Amino acid sequence: MTSTVKLGEVCHMRSGDKGDISNISLIPYDEADYEWIGEVVTAELVQSIFAPIIQGEVTRYEVPGIRSYNFVITRALGGGVSRTLALDIHGKAYGVLLAETEIEPRPDRNSNSNSNKEQDQ
Amino acid sequence: MSVRTVRVGCGAANATERVDLSLQMVEHGDVSYVGFDNLAERTLAFAQLERLNDPTKGYNPLLPDRLRAMLGPALARGVRLVGNMGAANPEAGGDVVRQVADELGVPDITVATVTGDDVRDRVLDGELELTFWETGGGVESLPGEIVSANAYIGAAPMLEGLGAGADVVVAGRCSDLSPYVAILGHEFGWKADEWDLLATAGVVGHFLECGRYVTGGAHADPYFGKDVPDIDDLSLPLAEVGEDGSVVITKVPGTGGLVTTGSCKEQLLHEIHDPSRYLSPDVVIDVTGVRLVSDGPDRVRVTGARGRPRTDTLKLLVGVREGWMAEVEISFAGHGAVDKARQAAESFRRRLARTSAAFDEIRVDLIGVDSVFGAASQRTVEPYEVRLRIAGRTPNRADTEAFVVEAENLWFGPIGGGGNRSTVRPVLAMYSSLIPRDQVPLSVQVTRQTRMEVAS
User: Fold this and answer.
1) CA–centroid distance for A71 within its chain
2) Collapsing DSSP states into helix, strand and coil, what is residue B391?
3) Selected residues 323-342 of chain B with any CB under 8 Å from a CB in chain A
4) Which residue from B minimizes the CA distance to A62?
5) How far are the Cα atoms of A24, B236, B355 from residue B401, in angstroms, in the given order?
6) How many other C-beta atoms can be found within 10 angstroms of the C-beta atom of residue B421?
7) Kind and range of the H or E element at B303?
8) What's the rounded Cα separation, in Å, for the pair B293 and A27?
9) Which residue of A has its CA nearest to B431?
10) pTM across the whole model
11) In what order do the strands lie in the sheet with B237-242?
12) Which 3 state secondary structure label does DSSP give B363?
């Protein structure tokens, strides 16, 4: 049996707004996961996750310098902070919804090190 | 050979930024300049409403309190303050600076005020050819009264103010990055066509203008084990910038929170779209090659920002009165809480449909079940209590009365509905367009106020 992992176990993220457009960064904790995450978390996957609550399209941008991705979703926020009837008017929690996504673990990684720390200090 | 560096702090990252954090930056940040971003997209429209109501208002409402706390310590240390705290009325904001200086007995202060971002009169006169992104049409396509129209202006006038010796530069709707671009341009003489250096200044501004988002705010995630120490004691961020374009992002020593490559990556991509083309009024920034490297505890070194020439247009944001929003909430508890809430929502909808009230949109949320992710929720649980929320938007004030009447009727829905509250508020919607730079003439007014104590 294969057990899935939540995307939030291998990446962190933040979402924000400009007008009716939401963007969600997707930042692998381990920079070595950049290519693998790129194969798994496509614009199509993100579109399918958010489809019930957005009207627009998802575009994925690569940010190789920090080995991260930026997802931009149009018509994503019910008209934007000033018009939306949603409680989370900015879509601050959109990144959390992405983090909930279950994905297959990285195939070539057999160690189950639960290293959630940024390769930092 | 050592490179000349300057420390620049963030003094505010939103309209209601904590005053104690502004003061902390001046007293403990060891900075030479503090930048302020007091404006979000809607803030300026609200400020313009205040100004229309009282021509001496319209600046950031916290400006007097903030200055009373920090102006004395800033002037004593030679810390210069630059930002958009003038909101819809930079001139009146400048008056506030001089008044507070007078109250404090400051002997000498130079204040620059920047005007020209407010183009409401010309938008109302139909002088400008505009195409709004949201409607595809011009001014006539906006669905209500135009309250405000402001261009996101760049660093140039603030740079002039600093060059004229201003201790405090009060602008209105400049871009969030531009106070920092002005500060670094003034300090190092970076030219308006040194695109990589301007992009570096813009990236510094981008790291600082969201304040605590880079020092550990909105970062802690207990579920996934991402911790932030002393989250109750986050400072605003600051940058050490070298004349050669070297940058380190850090925070006020001895405070909580953290500055890591992780928190900086989140901020680098915060609210940007195409990372190779981040548009600002000063420079088009490419962050795709930016590298972030740890430079010791709570210090992150930033390299690799690239710039291209700025565009010949500015972003214009227009605030429009667009009807009303009504909202009701009521709680249900115990077994079947969700069923009771759904029954209540259904009866509310049916009763409202029997009235003549016309709503553009109605939304039903079960708080605790689906109010955040809606139909995209990935998991549902049966809660022991739930709060029902119904919200609707209508062009007509009168139609919200029917909504409130039916909200009251929720007392007589399913058993145990409690905490019934309804609110009605105006909708101030924002519409965006581009505007040619040459349609936005700017000016800077610099005044020096001296105070002499004279024996009687």
Assistant:
1) 7
2) strand
3) 325
4) B288
5) 38, 44, 11
6) 11
7) strand B300-303
8) 15
9) A19
10) 0.95
11) B291-294, B300-303, B247-251, B237-242, B5-12, B33-36, B80-83, B168-170, B108-115, B443-450
12) strand
Q: Give the residue on A whose Cα is nearest the Cα of B42.
A: A82
Report d(CA B164, CA A92) in Å as an integer.
Answer: 41
- B112: CB partners within 8 A, 6+ apart: B94, B158, B160, B161, B162, B164, B166, B168, B169, B170, B444, B445, B446
DSSP B109-146: EEEEEEE--B-HHHHHTT-S----TTTSS-GGGS-S-E
Q: Please indicate whether, in this complex, the C-beta atoms of A121 and B378 are within 8 angstroms of each other.
A: no
pLDDT one-digit tens code per residue, B2-41: 899 999 999 999 999 999 999 999 999 999 999 999 999 8
CB contact under 8 A, A12 and B274: no
- How confident is residue B453, by pLDDT bands cut at 50, 70 and 90? confident
**Cα-flanking dihedrals φ and ψ of residue A4, to 5°?**
-85, 165
Contact A85 B361 (CB under 8 A): yes
Residues of A in contact with B272 (CB under 8 A): 23, 70
Three-class DSSP category at A95: helix
Rg (CA), chain B: 25
**Three state DSSP letters for B92-111:** HHHHHHHHHHHHCCCCEEEE
Which among A14, A72, A82 has CB closest to B42?
A82
pLDDT in tens, B313-360: 999 999 999 999 999 999 999 999 999 999 999 999 999 999 999 999
Lookup result for tokens 């992710």:
B373
| Per-residue confidence (pLDDT) for residue B34, from 0 to 100 | 98
pLDDT digit string, tens, across residues B90-125: 999 999 999 999 999 999 999 999 999 999 999 999
The DSSP code for A31 is G
Whose tokens are 């004229």? That residue is B164
Q: Which of A20, A66, A121 sits opposite B260 (nearest CB)?
A: A121
Percent of chain A that is helix, strand, coil (3-state, to 5): 30, 25, 45
Q: Which of residues 213-242 of B touch A (CB under 8 A)?
A: 213, 218, 221, 223-226
Q: Do A16 and B292 touch (CB under 8 A)?
A: no
A-contacting residues in B 374-403 (Cβ below 8 Å): 374-376, 378-379, 389, 391-393
Q: How far apart are CA B29 and CA B340, in angstroms?
A: 54
Considering only alpha carbons, which residue of chain A is nearest residue B306? A65
Query: At B51, phi and psi to the nearest 5?
Result: -65, -40
